Each structure stands twice: as structure tokens, then as C-alpha cells.
Request: fold
Amino acid sequence: MDATTVTHEIQPVFDSRSRVLLLGTMPSPASREQGFYYGHPQNRFWRVLAAIFDEPVPRTIEEKCDMLLRHHIALWDVLASCEIEGASDASIRDAQPNDLARIFDAADIRAVFATGTKAGELYRKLIEPTLGVPCTTLPSTSPANAKMKLADLVDAYGKALLPLLGETEKHVLPVADVVELEKEIAKSGTSLSTLMGRAGRALAKVALDEAQATASQHDPNNAAQRQADAISHTPHDNQNGSTDRTSNDSHTAEVGDPSDENQAAPHIAILCGSGNNGGDGWVAARELARAGCAVDLVTKRPAGEISAEPAHKQALLTEAIASEATNAAHAGLRQTAASAPTAPQTTATQHAEPGAIAIHVSPSCDELACLFAAADVIVDAILGTGFSGDSVLAPYDAWIRLANEQRARGARIVAADVPSGLSAQTGKAAEPCLKAHETLTMIASKPGLETPYAFAFCGTVRVAPLAYIEPILESWKQRETADNASAENNGLIGSSVATDANAALEAAGAGKPPSPKHDAFRRAETEDDDGYDPYSDRPPTPEPLFQADPWN
Reply:
């Protein structure tokens, strides 16, 4: 192969909050084609970062940038130009370095790492003598470094990066502020539909983790482990560098054959409300099915009758995928272009097959109990953060009671954003209220999830970040400071939309009603609660403090 002169044209990723700099050598032909770093389908860089941060693998360029910036990682390459044969680092000649001063001038970089031996050699030769900052060489994530398994790479990168980056700051924000965040994120170009797609993928990953917890921890070939690995991997058909923010709807996860002898695929039941919390569940259903799980989705309304957006769009897409799979199975896996797909609405006795979705519309209690009996994991995506009240209306009350009964029999339960029946704002539990092993709340935690007694219903609370929100929060803080200074000059006490979360927690714990600002706020998820008053001023009822899970 002839050598060609290559000029680096991909911009570095960094901002003033970056603390660690990762440097490759020069973008490969695949990376240059898609316009971003580590673009070869077999390169494990993004899988390694996702694993050490326990997140789904980013798929789009936007998601990759978000992950880097959220974790304060700067990314670039050592060389600005060179002659190179293909992607062979060994063939590099006439190498010219990038000017790293632009990153060091803007950010407090505390450590530099080269992602491979050649990158380390070139850095020490061309950059370190003038910059005066040493670098540590990490193993290459390239497929050419076959001796390093994924687990070995995750271990090496985790030990190097995590002590320097520390724990990600946990934000606790009132429900109204989270919705304001969604609006600000949308203004920056990331739509609510994109956020829902990310939320559903994160929810699917947690459900797979819970399925793994119920499977054998000693069998390296068990299906749950393989499915969890599959949903965490970057799909092969996403290596085109597309920045389409809704493109995650068309991806196919890397999976093994779930029908391997003596290896049962995880069985997941997903309960979807009619609002945008339910939309997260519809997205998770297709992600789990693509990972080889058998997915039973329970909904009060067919996809076409859901009015909340973008839940309606996501439900229709999942329904179409389920229909396509059903029609293909009926046709003996042959394409049937002449026949239109029909919505796969089944009875609860017709359980989903591995890798497929069965949609159950308003099943009876007996049918739902039959579904739950087969489920390894139950995902609660019924009522969202807009819920508040003393009781849950039918049919959701029966769904919650049956799920709690199945929990007592050994099923694992994952709640999306907030357990159904619990007020995310005050922490008050309605009757009934779902009891989850794990709650994955979106973007930031909420005051009701942080009260001392919330553990009884939330279990472990984790945050799915979904977007890079630190610049927005910082702008809010600056605005609050300016408003307070102005108010003090006028003899008043200032206030802003970025309400202090600790004050919200104190108000909840003291039995005080939410502030008028939050009473007046209307959550975008208007369909979540089917007519509930989402911002009732009823104070939370004190509940006992549990030090351990009282439901086991």
C-alpha cells in the first residue's frame, strides 16, 4: 500500500471542565470517513469508556461528545499531519504534532494518556519536550491488539482514569427544574424524542443487569450475561458516523444466539403507562428484544391511541418492529412485502419468544399474573414524575399490586424515573405504590427520591444522565446570582428557576407543601396520570425510616 499524506481535520473535544486528556496517533481511514474518533467497527474504545462509567455505549457523535464532556475527558490526537500507509502506525513518516496548548490554556488538565504505544512514543518525541507534561501510555483499543481482551482494557483504563476523574456530581432538582432542563437541552439541538431514546436504552441496560443478578453468577456462558454484554455493545450498523439524533431507533445490537442449548433468554415484562414515562418503556422493549430477550409489553392503550408525544411516535415504532417480526415468523422468516403488517396484540397466555415483543393491551388480572409468573424482571414505566396523590386509579392499581406480589416471589423490579405511586417531588407514597429493587431516574435525581423513607419503594436510585447539563446548571447559577444581587439592591430576596434542591428536601421532610411555583407548573407528560392532579398541595405523610429492604 502506498503512503499518503494525511492532515488531521477532526476537531478536539474539550471544554473548561476537562481534567484528563486522551491522545491517539492519527484518525484511521474509518474514523476520517465518519468524521470522528475511533470509528472502526471493531475498535473497542467506546465500549471501554461505557463499561468503566457503567453506561450504554454511545452511538452517535453527539452521544460520544456528551459522554466525554460529562466525565471531564478531553480527546484529540498527537499528530496534525503525517505520511501513513492505511491505518498502520508503524508506517508513519514526516510526523507533525498538534498544538495541545489550546487545550491546556482552556482547561486544568491533570494527566495525559496516550491510547497506544505509537501515540506515546510520538508524544514523548514531538510534544513533551516543549509542553513539559509527561504522558502515560495505555494499551491500544484497536482490534490489532488482540492479546488484550475487553475486560483487560476496561481494567487498565478504569484504574488509570477513575482515580483522577472522581465520582460524577449527583444533582438533585425539583421536577419543574428537570422539565426546564429538557427545554434547554432541546434548544441546544437534542430533542425530547432523542432523550427518550437514550432513556429507553439506559432502562434496557439496567433491566439486563437485573436479569443477570437472577441468573447464575458462576456460569460464564449463561444467557443473561451474554445478553447484558450484547446490549452494551456498539451495533455494527452504526459505524457510519451519522449524527442523526434519532438514529438509535434503527440499530441492531450484537447478540449471541439466545436459543443455545441449556441457555434460556431472560424474560422481561414491561408495564407502560400512556404518557412519556411509558414511552421510555416502549423504547426499552425493542432494545431488549434486539438483545435476544423475550419481552412482554403491557399497555392500557394500543400505540395508535397514545396521544402524548414523543411516546406516541416511539410506541408506533416499537409496534411496527414487533409486527414485522411476527409477520416474518408467520411467513417462515421470508419477506412478505405484499402484505401490510398488523399490530401484534396478544392475550397474556401468548408469551413472547426470545428476541421478540408481545404486546398485551389491557390484560385481565389473571392474564397479567400469568405474564408476571414467567418474568425474570418487571419494568415499571407506568406513572412518571408528574404523579401525586393518595391513590392510583385502575387499571394501574391492579398492575402495581400484582407486580409487588411477584416481587415477593423472586422477580426483580426496575422503575423508570420514579416508582409508580410515589411522588417524585415530595416522596409521598400513594396506595398502592410499587416497590422496586432499582430506580433509574432520568437526567437528575428528584427530592422525593432522596427522602429517608424513599428507599422502601425506590431501592437503589441511579441517574441516567442522558445529556451534558453542567453548562446549563452553571448558567442558571450565574443568573440566580445576578437576580439575587439585583433584588438585594431593591431590598428584596431574589429567586430563580434553579431552586436549591436542599431547600426542596427540607420542605418535603418538614411536611410543607411545594412552593406556588411548582403548584403552577404543568409537566409535559400530560398523559402520565390519566387525569390526576400532578401538583397536589397535600403534604407528604411521614413514613418510617428503613435501614434495610423491608419487603424481603
Summary: The chain has 18 helices and 14 strands. The chain has a mean pLDDT of 82. The radius of gyration is 25 Å. Residues 324 and 451 are 45 Å apart (CA to CA).
